[in-house]
Amino acid sequence: MKLHTERFAASFFRRSLIGAAVLVMCAAPALAVNPFVVKDIRVEGIQRTEAGTVFSYLPVRVGETFDDTKSIAAIKALYATGFFKDVRLEEENGVLVVLVEERPAISTVDFTGTKEFEKDVLIKALKEIGVGEAKTFDKSSVERAEQELKRQYLSHGLYGVKVTTTVTPIERNRVTVMFNVDEGETARIKQISIVGNKAFEDKELRQLLTLNTHGWFSWYTKADQYSKTKLTGDIESIKSFYLNRGYLEANVESTQVAITPDKKDIYLTINITEGEQYKVAGVKLEGEMFGREAELQQLILLKPGAIYSGELLTESNKRISERMGEFGYAFANVNANPEIDRDKREVVFTFLVDPGKRAYVRRMNVAGNTTSRDEVIRREFRQFEGSWYDGNRVKLSRDRVDRLGYFKDVTIDTPEVPGTGDQVDVNVTVVEKPTGNFMIGGSFSQSEKFTFTASIQQANFAGSGNTVGLELNTSHYGRTIAFSQTDPYFTDDGISQSFELYTRTSRPPAVNQGTYSVKQSGAKISYGVPFSEADTVFFGIGLERTVIETDESSPNRFRDYVTQITGIPDGIGIAKANALPLTAAWARDSRDSAVTPNRGRFQRANLELDLVGDSKYYRAVYEQQWYRPITRKMTLALKGEIDYGRGLQGKQYPVFKNFYAGGIGSVRGYTSSSLGVLDSRTGDVLGGSTRIIGQAELQLPFPGSGTDRSLRWFGFLDGGQVFQERQKIRANELRFSAGLGLSWISPVGPLKLSYALPLNDKPRDRLERFQFQMGTGF
Hints:
extended; Ubiquitin-like (UB roll)
């Protein structure tokens, strides 16, 4: 920065210099200012800066005496704004004249040679550190921007990056800033060395690392690109691995990262001190436990004689703290102090329980709900104002609000009420997400070909919590028009009400040769009654009209049903059947996620019964899904389903209510809906009144997806079959398959791919090893 000074003019000059550079003024008393009373202040030289901005920084006002001290302070203050590259102060007949030369403004910021990052991302990042359009140009800020660009590239393993900056002046005191980037080649991890490990082999420890040398999936995972953040996470993974296997004093002492002179290869060394493996010699509880010592002892997962585990220790602390929270002790503190016997390689833990004061909830506060009404959130609370704090109920309240599906994020904090030692507020903060959905498009599957779908649905209509929807779906084999509405709190007790109006038309599956059509129109209403936090029972009634049309090519089963309804001997014609089905159902859902579950169970049982209609039948469905994590990344998923239907009062089971099997969702590797007995005359697939399905999947995250469970690959084993009414169920009739698949919750809907090998197919079975479908979950 430059400061200009001028000599005092002779007496015949009308102006006198009274300002100078701060350092010069401090060092040269000869340039001292003759004090004078300021009659007025005038600013000259400004183009973009407001005069009021300059006045606000000046430490002098009209009527005050201007002297050396205020001159130095004024120049310092104006330079500190960063707006000016030159400042002068002059006096003219008692008027303080402030002459400034503004720094240029940045007109545009652009980049050349950037391939690793999007330009918009870089422009936004640099603007945050002061280099952006309309910002004041500052050379030091541009230098910081260069370093920030290099840092971003280094984090992506591009150690050979070079950044040069070109600043070009243009009209109206502006400049353009161009960052020229030579990204160079990506430096990749050539070798990872682990030093000091004796109890575990290198291969076992390397499996814990997200960083890795070049492999088949490196183009996707980028695991061979060094990242300090990833290395920090890997160090913690190694520490946890050792702690969970008894190595109480294990530590990663140091890491060395070396790069070759050509900046292409990286050598990583991790130095480990293992120490000795310890067993738990004893576990004790101390502190105030209100006579619940035996109960709290059961919550401790560490057992005498077992190998020490850091994970079990942490979980034990958490379980005791949460249990104390259920009794109202919101600020309970639990610490486990170890007593180490290095000679015996044993450790005794003493859990110190400090419950603090018992607290009750003063207020339950809701924030962030810009659309949803307060009552929609509050009716999910299981913790109440004015009652003792219960940590379990607070957590349950958060989970219930989250399961509504209306919010991107739900958080709860329980701050202590200032000035009290026994009160807390429970603050529930939500982040709204769009719950309305208008969709028009199509999907494609091998069996259905192209399907047109249009729907509009509002899951939180007007913030009321009600769901309304209109669906239009058409394909070669089925058409649907349906309107539905659900009120989850039809009563204050949480009884839900749902109703639906619909018309559906279906035609034979692709594997059939014969033709027929089934058109169903109707309405149904149901009520759901919760009797626990996980269990709900449903009761409903419907009114349905079914029209079946057959011809000479229709399967015998359909023609027989037409004969039953109409009395037409050959069963060729149109049959109309009315039904008044009653439904009763039960559902229990304890999964941790409805979309990508990792743990928990889902069960569903449904009974549909028609005693007064033309068909007279009952239809029962039972389904169970079970999820259990096998390792940190692997999940075992099991699904079983048994469906059973029968005709009543001498009637045959309605053929249009048949179950089908084969394809994704049942037994992969067999053509969709192709299993079961075939029509004796046409060879068409008929489905059946009984269906048995079993599926097992071993699910793993796709390489490079980290903890994202929306993209997974899996191995599977399927089995199942359908059987006709009164047909004996034989195990040797079941069909089995095994294979590999990929599941992706994509932006356009769930996608599932599978390649299956049928294990016991028969000559007449229709096979389809590769299958895919959108919109179908497990």
